[in-house]
Amino acid sequence: MYARSAARLLSAQTRAFSTSSARQTKVAVLGAGGGIGQPLSLLLKIDPLVSSLSLYDIRGAPGVAADVSHIDTDSAVKGYTADQLDEALEGAKVIVIPAGVPRKPGMTRDDLFNTNASIVRDLAASVGRVAPEANILVISNPVNSTIPIVAKTLEKAGVFDPRRVFGVTTLDVVRAARFLGEVSGSDPKNTVVPVVGGHSGATIVPLLSQNAHGKGISGDAYEKLVYRIQFGGDEVVKAKDGAGSATLSMAYAGAKFTNALLRGLNGEKGVITPTFVKSDLFASKGVDFFSSNVELGINGVEKIYPIGPLSAEEEKLLEACLPDLKKNIDKGYAFVA
Ligand code: NAI
């Protein structure tokens, strides 16, 4: 009862979990026992587009699975232990990866590289072998580097399809809508701010000029708002004081993006949201992956939209973004090479 009303509530309030088709899908979560993995598993359990939920972690996934499996929605749930990764991946159409360590105060996302790069590479190699046609959604940071790692790993295995590998940057979009709402009085659920570039600090480029409420904001208020969207993650890291980074808002954002992709895969038209994908937009500048509005469809990425007109301030933000983003991407490439 609660789950159904929660699903209805989320759906009505946020359009996060809408369904346009009866076709359903097996979704796997790798890192399901973690701070993000647990609430993400909960939210996927109440998404009507998920028919089967496969929860994997090196520790704790069977417990999470037993727990969420009692929720009164249709989907089947199974938990898998460290040595059961292949079974967890079999038949999965969508694989969400929040596995890896989170930040502590004072750390940048890049500081996580050493630990998370190998975790993501090894998981991607298994996906390439067991579920080569799956759509892979990477939450593990630093996303600017983990996505190139996944792409190269799949490429090495001969199964990279650029339409099926997504860096989840939805939390930046969610934050932009919320923070703009706070300063402008707009309702966050109807506030769409495209956030382009990458997913860390200065690589996060909010395009406030493309929102009716955002375009009037200038001067100090503008600087503060942009900073807050770029570094909002730090607020959570600081407040959690060593206990991790965003988990609940991230789980929400991860479930929201997963639902958008599932709707696209099921044939719904016009599902458009920013995500970090292989993109030609700035390839001439050596930036092979970029987040911009992407139309999601039956093949994953259907269409990558250009970033559109920019204000003078946004031109500067983009100028600052590109070299950093290139460095992060190259670091990911170098790791796999
Ligand atoms: P956490 O430490 O609470 O959970 C991570 C989970 O991954 C743990 O349960 C751990 O056992 C598991 N794990 C580690 N190695 C694994 C492997 N080889 N296979 C399967 N599972 C494995 O961390 P939390 O807070 O859930 O964060 C996870 C990641 O998400 C971090 O890298 C964090 O930086 C990132 N993140 C990304 C955001 C985004 O916007 N894309 C936002 C917030 C966090």
From TrEMBL:
Pfam families: Ldh_1_C, Ldh_1_N. GO terms for biological process: malate metabolic process; tricarboxylic acid cycle. Residues 169-336 form the Lactate/malate dehydrogenase C-terminal domain. Substrate binds at R103, R109, N141, R175. It is an enzyme of class 1 (oxidoreductase). The active site is at H199 (proton acceptor). Residues 25-167 form the Lactate/malate dehydrogenase N-terminal domain. Homodimer. This is Malate dehydrogenase. It comes from Russula ochroleuca.
